[in-house]
Amino acid sequence: MLHSTLQSLCHQIVVPHPQSVAILDENKLKSTLIDQLIEQAVFGEPEVKPGARWLIWEIAQEMGIYPSSIHPYYMARGRKLIPLDRTVPAMNIRGLTYDTAQALFEVALETKSQAFIIELARGEMLYTDQSPAEFTTSILAGAIKVGYEGPVFIQGDHFQLKSKQPAVPEAGEVEKISHLIEQAIEAGFYNIDIDASTLVNLSAAKVSDQQAANIRYTKEFLNQIRSLEPAGVTISVGGEIGHIGGKNSTLEDFTVFMTGLNQAKEVTGISKISIATGTSHGGVVNPDGSMADVAVDFDLIDQITQKATSGYSIAGAVQHGASTLPEEWLSKFPAAHAAEIHLATGFQNLIFDHESFPEELKTNMYSWLDEHHQAEKEKGWTDAQFHYKLRKKTWGNFKSELWHLPQETRNAFKQTLSAKFKTIFEALNISDSQELINEHTPTIPIHKEIIDFALELPKDTNSNGLSD
Hints:
This protein is α/β, with parallel strands linked by helices. The chain folds into 2 domains: 4-62, no CATH class; 67-354 and 394-453, Aldolase class I (TIM Barrel, Alpha-Beta Barrel), CATH 3.20.20. It has helices spanning 4-10, 26-43, 49-62, 71-78, 97-111, 122-127, 132-146, 173-186, 207-210, 212-228, 251-262, 298-312, 332-335, 345-352, 359-372, 383-390, 399-403, 407-427, 434-440; strands at 14-17, 20-23, 65-68, 88-92, 117-121, 150-160, 191-195, 236-240, 272-275, 317-319, 340-343. Helix 8 links the parallel strand 6 (150-160) and strand 7. The radius of gyration is 21 Å and the shape is globular. The mean pLDDT is 93.
């Protein structure tokens, strides 16, 4: 039963049915109702949130906006039916999600782009205070607001196992990832990156032994994902062979991993592979707070993509930690035939370092870090390094303050983000990708019940907050 608060808001604009809605006034829906619904979906009372999220899901379905899997597109790329010089950006949105989604979909409409992924990592869910259900809802609301139509690729980034010793997950980690997978799929995450690279045992002499635990648990989670897929959907699943920020991956790592993963394969396999090429999550920050230069092995990206497509018919190599690289490097990834790159911290930096960001609010956020996260300050770090590396953890605690900043301030952020999204789309050669997506990626209408959205933040997620 839809809560009376939502019934009142929807009056003469949207009519709810048991598993669908009818839109009576699309103009009022976009101008006012969607703003009210997303407010209730994020900040409403517990008895109101599930209904608001359900309404937004069903409104999106009615408007031709579908959470989808990019798996068919990646399989087409693996068969070289799609040019390899197109790189899909996977973009982590840590906060101001509704506003950021609007900016992103506006650029997508302008550039006729659809080959992009919107994602949230396991750790980000905790420190940004965004459950999978809330995240999906905010993304869909942004698409509704600006009139976007088509598939929306929402991805679970770094569903990563924590480990304190080589090849062995911490107690309870497998169960936590398994539960998170269930929750994410229920919320419309039809793209999931399994990250068992933390289990790679570099002390072992043979690469097969190094990758053994990674292969075992990737296969286990892959089987679970396949068992939970909605009818007609093949979820895009990614694997990872090298811990980002550690030792660079090799072609042998990849072939050993794929051989082991495909051995006695009973289900559809992965669509892409994440590799370590020299980058790190969030970039490397100098003592003064500026970004340090890093080296990226673009030849390695190309070698593994060529092997991935010719030998295994999957999309290719995935680059993490790319958002803080020099902007002029973006075009090097399509040239190196990267299938996908992950971008996160750069968007955060555009907001936190924006000239319109209120100084008083930033001071309060940094003071909160000093008080609550001082134990995470590494030896030798300056305050600038500490605040830069940890400020991502302020998103959740200051979520309401950021969400309710003056419209003028948020519009300034959106304008800057829009320019960045456009630069990314052009540099990665995904402008005008709508036709390719439509050709290779079917959209599947999926209707839900209100109870499906009574999902809150996963318990005891990875507080390290691994993302790009």
